[in-house]
Design goal:
Blueprint (H helix, E strand, L loop, with lengths): L1 E5 L9 H15 L3 E6 L9 E4 L2 E5 L16 H17 L5 E5 L4 H13 L3 E5 L7 H4 L5 H14 L3 E4 L2 H11 L6 E3 L6 H6 L8 E5 L8 H14 L4 E5 L5 H11 L4 E5 L3 H10 L2 E4 L8 H8 L4 E4 L5 H9 L2 E4 L3 H13 L1 H14 L5 H17 L1
Parallel strand pairs: 1-2, 1-5, 2-4, 5-6, 6-7, 7-8, 9-10, 9-12, 10-11, 12-13, 13-14
Antiparallel strand pairs: 3-4
Helix pairs in contact: 1-15, 2-3, 8-13
Length: 384
């Protein structure tokens, strides 16, 4: 098959959807399929075309500086510019058998629909989340929320096939956007079990780790406040915050004002170091209130590290942890998060129970399985 993929961000950008597409499609390419990814050029040192892991990557000729704003939103003008470019390339280039599009940030998926119709090619759209009324929480102006909700519903009806990263997101698509459940194929995220298994690290009994984009909805302020409480009860506890993002300055300012020590911001790290930090930690904490599923939660499971996540509407990480009995699902507050962390640090029997469940439960989530499921979806599309 010849597969064209439209996604706003890709390597070297670090984010969940970028990692998912790289891990899935390098395996698809390794099976002999022709994969081209069309994505935004965010930095000048990124070439306009290159091959990564057998994937042909094509970026916008123009560097779209400010595509992601300082607040972590998408610049609408830049998104429209990228969408117009992607539409032009999809129509101009050699026609693919299947077009795959990332649902976020809506306009590229709609452009992919136009291109697919023009070429008579099926479109599959992968939904990482369903925002619905969450638009009111995250847009820079509440004026945009109703428009976002309408466009999201339009995007849900654009594809010939819909892929959801979790059962939670699939249920939200059906409930809030009126999508028929039998139109949705759930293909979960995955982990590279072999690669994580090769990494060695000495477990630290009081090490807490967060891994992910430093975005405002990740609620790192809650984690920092929870850590202050934990330090009062677990002397010698440390917190490592791994990743980059628009909320880093806010978080560092909060740490300075609180005068709390023992917190390290590592910035972005490569996968080997990421897995080492996860294996070294006693507990992984994701205070985020919005996750389609959470790759880093699965990676923590593969590292055998118990997790603390929060209960929130639309949080797929809580769905994972609850299903696997691999950690604690806390109420969305610093006190509740602190209580969960302290329980895992103090209770060896509980820690070993979560550790064992994590290693067992995560075996069903692999990138090899995800890539095979995508190929089955595309095969079904072409044969229908």
């Amino acid at each position: 098959m010849k597969i064209s993929v439209v996604t706003e961000t890709f390597h070297p950008f670090r984010g969940g959807s970028a990692k998912r597409y790289r891990e899935v499609f390098k395996r698809v390419a390794a099976r002999g399929h022709d994969v081209t990814i069309y994505t935004a050029r965010l930095w000048a040192d990124c070439p306009t075309e290159e091959d990564i892991d057998g994937i042909h990557v094509v970026r916008t000729p123009k560097v779209l500086r400010g595509f992601i704003t300082k607040e972590g939103f998408r610049d609408v003008n830049k998104v429209l510019e990228f969408s117009a470019w992607a539409l032009k390339r999809l129509v101009k280039d050699e026609s693919p058998d299947v077009i795959e599009a990332n649902h976020c940030p809506i306009f590229p998926a709609l452009a992919s629909r136009v291109a697919g119709s023009a070429r008579g090619r099926p479109l599959c759209v992968t939904f990482h989340e369903c925002w619905h009324n969450h638009w009111y929480w995250y847009v820079p102006s509440r004026f945009y929320a109703p428009l976002g909700m309408v466009l999201e519903k339009l995007t849900a009806w654009a594809p010939d096939c819909v892929v959801s990263v979790s059962e939670l997101t699939a249920d939200r698509l059906a409930t809030h956007l009126g999508m028929k459940r039998d139109r949705i194929r759930v293909i979960p995220n995955g982990v590279d079990l072999e690669r994580i298994g090769e990494v060695e690290a000495e477990r630290n009994g009081k090490e807490i780790v967060y891994v992910g984009r430093l975005n405002f909805h990740k609620k790192l302020d809650w984690l920092i406040q929870a850590y202050e409480r934990v330090r009062n009860e677990a002397k010698g506890a440390r917190l490592t915050i791994v990743g980059e993002g628009p909320a880093r300055e806010m978080c560092e300012g909060l740490v300075r004002r609180a005068g709390v020590d023992g917190i390290e911001f590592t910035g972005a790290v490569d996968d080997a170091e990421l897995y080492r930090l996860l294996k070294q930690a006693r507990v992984y904490v994701l205070p985020s209130i919005r996750e389609g599923q959470s790759i880093t939660t699965l990676e923590a499971m593969a590292a055998g590290t118990p997790q603390v996540v929060v209960e929130a509407d639309g949080n797929g990480a809580a769905e994972l942890v609850r299903a696997g009995m691999t950690g604690i699902v806390a109420r969305p507050s610093p006190d509740a998060i602190a209580e969960g962390i302290t329980r895992i640090i103090d209770d060896d029997e509980l820690w070993h129970e979560f550790h064992s469940h994590s290693l067992s439960f995560v075996r069903r989530y692999t990138w090899n399985a995800a890539s095979a499921q995508y190929l089955q979806v595309y095969s079904d599309l072409l044969s229908s």
